[in-house]
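Let us practice reading a record.
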Amino acid sequence: MGWSDEDVQGICEMAKDPLLMANQGFLVLAEPAHEGQLIGVLSLTRIPGQAHEAGIGLWLAADARYRGFGSEAIRLASELCWQSGIHLITLGTTSSNTAMQRCYLAAGADLFDTGENELPDGRVVEACWYRIQNPRETPQNEAT
């Protein structure tokens, strides 16, 4: 939530080294039909103090929006999470970003909270928070 164009440019530079990106929790998306064209960046971050939870952040280039790339990237990242022992993924966006909210819902997320959120640059925005539960986990499994 709240990535600037400068943030994305920095991520593009780091993307030249996929190992560095993986170690930082980023997955770089490129459309096969347009080799070398960045269509989006997905960040996957473990939640501190929560061994089985992760957060996903997503940015898509303007010409990659409304084409299903975002929800597909979230589904792929979710599968990696489930294979890594993650049980719960949290995603957030601004309440005005209805396109990203639809993307999260299409990826299987459920809205669980709304409220004010302070961005890294100090701005305060109204935010919507979504979660995706590992479908292979049952409440009994989560208690153990």
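A brief commentary: The helical segments are 5-14, 18-23, 69-83, 98-106, 139-143.
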